[in-house]
Amino acid sequence: MATYNRASKFLSSSADGASGAFTASSGEGPNGGVRKLRRARRATAIGTAMIVIGALAPTAAPAAIGLPVEGSAATLAVTSSSCSLSGATGSSSTSIYNVTATPNDAIDDTQNIQGRINAAGAAGGGVVKIPAGTFLINGKLLMMSNVKLEGVGPATVLKAGPSFTSNTGPAGGYPLVTTGGADNTTLSNFTADQSGDTLNGNVPGRLNEYVIDVRDSINSLVQGVHTRNPFTYSIAFVGGTKWCVKDSDTQSATNGKYVELDGIHAMNTSVGDIVGNVVDQRIGTDGDDGIAVHTYGDEDVHDIRIANNNVRGGRHGAGIDLAGGSGTVYNINLTGNTVWGSPRGLHDAYYDGTKQIHHIQIVGNIFRDNDIKTLGGAVDFERPVTYVTMTDNTACNSGDYRLPAGTGNVNAGNTQTSTC
Ligand SMILES: [Ca+2]
Predict the structure, then answer these.
(1) Residue 132 alpha carbon to ligand 1 centre in Å
(2) Structural domain count, the chain
(3) Are the C-beta atoms of residues 283 and 313 closer than 8 Å to each other?
(4) Among 113, 167, 248, 290, which residue carries the largest CB count within 10 Å?
């Protein structure tokens, strides 16, 4: 929702009220107990990020904002190729490690799969292949550097088992798979089912780690991953740099069980592509933002390309949400997305501070059949922003565009019709 304080929701019991069953404990936060570790890690990540950004030949930083060197969104390279901003390639290893667990039974498969990941990692990298079938996960799969975890497609299902919530991941949450600081990883061609429809996922730490949890890692690729039945965010990038999620899909389909179910979420991270995905957070009533770019605490989120996605945000959120705070959201490029059937299309939000969002490029997107039919139904910047270029977008049966006047803001060539 537009006005709630997301940080306070993380840090205390439910303030949203949508689900009385939400039982987040005091001290729960999206970064969990590894925040210090992540900060230390990020210091390394920034060095890499600056190298990548430098290649984009940014213009001079806007003096009026007074921030350190930052590229201009207008200079971000946007091409039709996948992962074109980040250049993320994931694992380049080729040695095969076959999972030998038996699918489609009641026997847990976590240790078998984790054993293959560990063996590949210990050898310097490898491809862990999982055949078709449903594999029960009662633990948490932790990636190793230079490893690719690869299924055969949607028919390879990693499914949270009946005791999935009896243990937590390294950051105190409930990931089916977390990179946990490993670099050069690929997650490819499988379904990740958190069983939130049958499990009671309203447990402490629910928002500490996510279904597909890419965390504090460099060069991470997620492709062809299908998430189902989440009780937290579906695919998330937290800290780290140089990452890409493409050709994947998320679905949120529960009713009255959870809040805060975002589809693809990027938090306190940089240099990423979100491209060619199908995000649907509104099959049930519990869904929140479709795609969210989010600062938490005083860290920034920047240099992210969101292109050619099909997005339906859930009842509690927007199609795409730029969520600032004490950190800044900048250099975000949104091109060629279709955002439909959401409360709003694109929305700004400030959850734990007021630092201004800036350098956002919104070009050639389609907003259709979103709930709000008046100002802000398509694009809604409620607070002052600067260097926002919003051009050549189409809105139908989706209200109009709201962009306050501000330094460097451009609002031109956008169309708005009442019918599609
Ligand atoms: Ca099994």
Answers:
(1) 12
(2) 1
(3) no
(4) 290
